TrEMBL record:
Protein's recorded name: ChrR-like anti-ECFsigma factor
Matches recorded under SUPFAM superfamilies: RmlC-like cupins
Highest taxon, organism lineage: Bacteria
Pfam families: Cupin_7
Sequence ranges assigned to domain ChrR-like cupin in this UniProt record: 99-189
């Protein structure tokens, strides 16, 4: 099934022009792996550059170039797919191996998160989120914006049900909660600005205590 919700066009433009930061680029690349419509749009946006390249006169290929590229490429093992997490190989290749992902459980919620990429301290980060079937990711506020997509399963977010490939975003200052599909649960890839997600209620207290501990 094709995604119903897509990234806004300025995000596709940032990807096409190379202006996207690493977490955003990996997020968009993953959406493109689900979405032929957006992949076509990116192709259209990059077409002038492609035409320019085509206009450059062809130079003779240096002898042995392909052999060297082949030798270089065959030294790198292709990334191993991660069961149940349909991340495209091009994205997996840029992430640490799955056994190094450090999972943090969200207390009492049946959900967990792992930070895959940090752009800069206090900057934005790329997170994998897993919700068990029927799990509720508790209400939380974002100091910075959040955007991301569902990788597998489905999730209710502010009255909309998002499925594999669907893009969603929450503006800076907003708060929301998530409810995973009762049968399949949900895997999602999320980019957080400021990496400052504050849980409400007692989970917030636990979160702040845990953060005090980890910074000591
Ligand atoms: Zn799309």
């Amino acid at each position: 099934m094709m995604p119903v919700n897509h990234p806004p066009s300025e995000r596709l433009l940032a990807y096409a022009t190379g202006a996207a930061d690493v977490p955003l680029r990996l997020l968009l690349e993953t959406h493109l792996s689900f979405c032929p419509a957006c992949a076509r749009e990116v192709g259209r946006l990059t077409a002038p550059g492609g035409t320019l390249l085509e206009a450059v006169p062809a130079e003779p290929v240096p002898t042995g170039l392909f052999e060297r590229i082949w030798a270089e490429a065959s030294q790198h093992e292709p990334p191993r797919p991660v069961e149940g997490v349909p991340l495209p190989p091009s994205v997996l290749a840029e992430l640490p191996p799955a056994e190094d992902w450090r999972w943090h459980a969200v207390p009492g919620s049946g959900s967990r998160t792992a930070r895959l990429v940090s752009e800069a301290p206090g900057g934005c980060g790329l997170f994998l989120v897993h919700l068990q079937p029927g799990a509720r990711f508790p209400r939380h506020a974002h100091r910075g914006g959040e955007e991301g997509l569902v990788l597998a399963g489905g999730v209710w977010d502010r009255g909309r049900f998002l499925e594999a490939g669907d893009w969603g975003s929450a503006p800076a200052g907003s708060s929301h909660e998530l409810l995973a599909d009762a049968k399949e649960g949900c895997w999602a890839l999320i980019r957080e600005e400021c990496e400052d997600v504050r849980l409400s209620g007692w989970r917030g207290v636990v979160q702040r205590l845990a953060q005090c501990h980890s910074t000591r």
